[in-house]
Structures are given as C-alpha cells and as structure tokens.
Amino acid sequence: MGNQMRKVFQFFIIFSFGWISAQWEGESASVLASGRREVSLFTPFRMGLSNKSEISVNKFLLMPSISYKAEMAQFRGWKRAYRLQLTYPTMVMRWLQSPLGMKLGEPDKFALISPEFTIPQMASIYGELIGSKGTPWSGQLTLNVGVGIGMNGKELEKRATVDLPIIYPRLSVYYNGFLLKMGGEYWRQFKERWSYVMDYDMFVMPRGEGRYTFEHKGLMVWTKSERFRLLFGYKLIAGEYPFGAQAHLFPTLDLQFGW
Amino acid sequence: MLKRHKFKLLLFVGIALSSCDPLVNEFNDIEDAVMYRANSIIDASAKDTVKVMTWNIRFGVARLRFFGDGCGDRVILKKSEVYEGLEGLAEKIKQEDPDILLLQEVDVQSKKTGYIDQAQWLLDNTDFNYGAYGSMWESQIIPADGLGRVNTGNLILAKWRLTEAERYQLPLRGDQEGLTQYFYLRRNVLKATVAMPGKSFIAVNTHLTAFATDTTKQKHINGFKTILDGIVAEGQNFVAGGDLNEIPPNASKLDYCIEDQCEDESYHSSGKPKHKEGSFFGSEYTWLEPLYNKYSPAISLSEHSLHETDNYTHSPDNKLKLDRKLDYLWTNTAWLDGMTHQEATELSDHIPVSARWVIK
Lengths: 259, 360
Hints:
The structure holds 2 protein chains of 2 kinds. Chain A is mainly beta. Chain A has one domain (about 1-260): monomeric porin ompg (Porin). Chain A has 3 helices and 12 strands. In chain B, about 20% of the residues lie in helices and about 25% in strands. The chains are: A mainly beta, B alpha+beta.
C-alpha cells in the first residue's frame, strides 16, 4: 500500500508541473512561426504572431498568466529575444488552502497552505532576456537571465510557504517580492527524429528562508512530426527551503502538440 | 558514434527510472534511534537514586489553540510562540532536575513549529547531555490542513551517555483507509541503555495511539509490555514511561465526549457519531491491567483511587481543568516519591509525572 500511495503522490507532484512550470520555463530565443500553435501537458499554450513574436497563456485557469516574447536584433551571432510575463496566483493559492472544499481538521485533504492564512490579491511581472547560438544539428546553446517582481495587495505571511521542490522557488516572488533567475539550455539533434536537451536553471531568492534553487533537466526528445513530440527524462532539483537544503530527482514525461 | 548515443540514451533512462526519496518514512520494525548530544557536556557522576520524569510536551506550544488535538484553529505557529513554549518547559525541567527525561511530541523538523529542532534546543538549554530520538511521524509533506513537512516523535534525555538506542515500530491504526494511514502517525517504543558509570540500566519511552476506535491501542499496550518483558528476561532493570493515552482501570470516569466536544460537534444524540474519537474509554479501561499486574507504577492504583484528581495528567486544548490520567512511569523494581506535577498545567496539555528510582 505504501508504494502505491507513493506513486499516487509522485504522480501528483510530476503533473503539478503542469500549472507551475508555466512560469518562466527556459526556452530558446526563437519564436514560433506566425500562426503556428503549440501546447503540451506541462507548458502553456503558445501561438506565433506575425511580427516575429509569440504569445502564450497558461492553460491552468486557476493560475492565469500571459506572456509576450519578441525577437531582437542578432548580436555577434547570438539570436536574441525578450519575454515579459504577467501572472496572477491568488486564485490557485486560495484553492490550495482547500482543494476539496473541506474545513480545517475534517481533515482538509490535499490542502498545501493552511487555511488560517489570508492570501491577498497578488500579481507578478517577470522580464527575461534570452540569447541562442548554433543550430540543432550542430548543437544550440541558449542562455537566459530574468528578474521577477511581486506586487501584493497586502503582505503575504511567510509561514504560508509551500516547502516543496518546483513550487517553492516559483512562488517565492510573492513572499519575498523579488526573484532573480538565470539558466542555460543545450539542445542537440543527433538523428532525424531524435534530439536531447540538457537544461539548467538557478533561482536566487533574496530575503527568503530558502535562498536558492538549482534545477537541472535532461530530456530525450522524439519528434514524430510537426504535430507531435514526446519528451522524457529526469529533473534534478537541489535547493534550500525553510527547513534546510534538500535534493530531489523526478522522472519527467511530456507530450507536445503543434499545428 | 552510434554507441555514444546509445550510452547517452541508457544514461537518460537509468536516471529517469532511479527511485526518489520516499515522501513518508515508513520505518523498519526495528531501527537505530537518532542520537543527540548537547553542545556542552556537563560531567555527571553515578548515583544511587535517579530521578525519572515523563512529559508529553505538545511540541512546545503550551496551551496555544492548535487544531489537531483540540478545538483550535491554528496550524502553523510562529517561531516566537514555540521558543516561548520551549523556554517554559526548560525552566520547569531545570527546576525538577530529573536525570532521565522521557518526552513525547517533540518536533525536530516540522513546519508547524518553525522547523525548530526541539531535541537539540532542549539539550542545549537544560542540564542534559545526551538524547535518543525515535520519530513517530516523518513526512516531507502531510497533504492535509496545510501541515506541510513533519518530523515529530519520542525523545529520551539523559545525563549519562545513551547506547544501543533502538526504535521499535508498533502496529499502524487498523481503522483508517489506505491513503490516510500512509500519511498518518507511526507509533513506536524507544529503548536505550543508560550507561551510568558502574551500573547501566534501560530507559524506555512511548506514546501510544490516542484516536484509534478499534483494538490498535490494546496492541500498542501489549507491544510496549512485550519490550519491557524482554528487558526483564535478559536480567536487566528498566525505567519506562510515556503518554499511553489510556486511563487507569480504577478511573471513576470513562466518557469524556461531552467535555471534549467542540462548538460544531455533538455526541450521544441520535443521528450523530456516538462517541468522539479518543474521548470514550468505556470499552478499554481494563487494557492497562497487565502492566499494573506485572510492573510497579510511579502512582499506584490505590494512590490513584485515594487522590484521583491530584493525579490527573491531561486536559485537552486550552482547558486548564485537568480531568484524566494518561501518563505513566513503570519499573520492574520500585519507585519512591511518585509525583504528578499539576503546577505545570499551562506548559502543555499533559502534566509531567516524576519519581525517584533506587538503583539495584
């Protein structure tokens, strides 16, 4: 029974990436071709616009976010882009106080934030610069750096953090007011349908009890066609939380669709 | 080239399939305890008589209105509140100055108490030198009520070195469905050898189920007694104790459902649950008889009968009127001066019990 429960919860954690990874996921400086649309289990819905830009929206409606990404002029062989994102987390954080609508002690199953805390109206804005060099066949390197700023109607109680990997660094901006994120990605295609991605991100969370998180992802990518891709691999997370430092390793799986 | 790519593929698959840290520590039947040591060691010489005390310290939150064991609405407490509670406990401990202290509900890494390692804090703020800890609830996340990460359990503190400290798993509650049981408490008995110079002895600490509605509590009492029997069979002497969550066989009151009910609860009326979990002892008040029949309690049954209210050790939530005895000290030899410290009522929802034990 223990193994079964562990798998259920791991499933919950892995698939929770779906709403939480919608924020600030690393990607190349390229934008989608005009009119092309892409969506996957764990990334937002994206659509290419006509002026070398794209727009994306989170498909998880309890955490609405919208981002705009636009290409910039090349610099010394580096393709460049910027991205701006606006996120409204209040609904999902209130939902996390009672996902099944139960009261404290009933028990309030699956509540990750105590209902004793008031979640104020909040939003965050995130700006990011992205640079990419190379091609998929020769190997494409992408570097990014961004800053997030939290805008809270009232101060959010710091005891109300969710001290779990993936979630803790991505919500930190609402507790601390500021987030610095930087990372890189290496993408290489080695067969007609196969490529791999090595990805690295670092979250710096000044004023937080957990001050940093490192995330590394390794993915194999199988591209069936322009319409479908399968990604699988692992995600390694090492970070500091209010209780101390801890590392986690998760298997990951994603299905991407485009049209 | 192809071989290199195959190797990369195998590496990816291997890493992806490797196991993650378990969310919940399910514990083996017998495990080594987690050992603690005070920052500064105070020399302790051998004694002819040692003072032993047991205390459920309610994770250092005194009588604050925590939701989980009463009618409160607090879940994640402030660090300042926890330190204030711990300071009250440390002051009382220093005042009583026991040589062996059996503590229950000690948080060592719980979100609800600001992740303060209370075992280390108590060691560093009292006159004890060594500690042995056995967790009864260790999970990276409790997915209910916003509790978050939890690590809480039993702690033996001693002035002398502790050796061979082991945690013995007790049966899980039999009246819960799988998901709840997986994330629920795992009760245990903690046993350690106290290496007092010239004469070592065994200290045993436990905290038995409070809310089981089936025979789990009886199994826990039997499990506790089996460990004590094993110590005696090996020719050793023990001091044992803890929060047994059970009333004595001669208790005058068996039903606390009405006293314990919260504002939105109702018991003993039609259409409602008949009894509140953990508040009705009518079907189980004889379960401690085997312990009373075989071993010596710090507070005898006759003493309890004569001065029952003076020996109450518990009242739930922020109610300061003590109304039942749940906490005990036992030995296979004899106690002197058993005491129930009701003056400590505001420091926890349980009262410490102490006694002197003559070394044999």
